[in-house]
Amino acid sequence: VQLQAYGGGLVQAGGSLRLSCAASGRTFSYTKAWFRQAPGKEREFVASISSNGGSTDYADSVKGRFTISRDNAKNAVYLQMNNLKSEDTAVYYCAAQWIGTLGYRYWGQGTQVTVSS
Questions:
Q1: Which DSSP helix (H) or strand (E) runs through 19?
Q2: C-beta atoms surrounding 86 within 10 Å
Q3: What are the two backbone dihedrals, phi and then psi, of residue 27, each rounded to the nearest 5 degrees?
Q4: Which residues are 104's β-sheet partners?
Q5: Which of 72, 78, 92, 115 is most enclosed, with most CB atoms within 10 A?
Q6: Within 10 Å of residue 105's Cβ, how many Cβ atoms?
Q7: How far is CA 13 from CA 31, 53, 67, 88, in A?
Q8: Tens digits of residue pLDDT in 19-73
Q9: Within a 13 Å sphere around the CA of 78, how many CA atoms are in the beta-carbon half?
C-alpha cells in the first residue's frame, strides 16, 4: 500500500483548503486518518474515519472546522479544512490501517499547509 497526499498550499487565515490522499492497493477496509506536524513540534492526530465512513473522530483543535471523508470507490480520503488559522500551519500526513498501540501501518509523504495571518 502506498499513500499520496496532495492539495496543500498557502492560504490566508479564514480561508479553506481540501486535502486529498490517494491510495494504491486495497485500503477500503482500513481506518484512515490525517495527522500533522508543525515546525519544532511532534506529529499530532487531526482526524480519523472508519472503513465505511460511519464513524469519525477529531482533535479538539479542529472540531467544527475540519471534515474528514472518504470515497472507497476511488480509494481516497479527504480533509476539508475551513476557517483556517495560523496555528493550522503544518505538514499534513495521511495514514491507513490502525494497528493498535503501534499506531498506523501506512503513511503518506505529507503535504505542506501554510496559513498566513
A1: strand 17-24
A2: 11
A3: -120, 10
A4: 98
A5: 92
A6: 12
A7: 30, 29, 17, 9
A8: 999 999 889 999 999 999 999 999 999 999 999 999 999 999 999 999 999 999 9
A9: 12
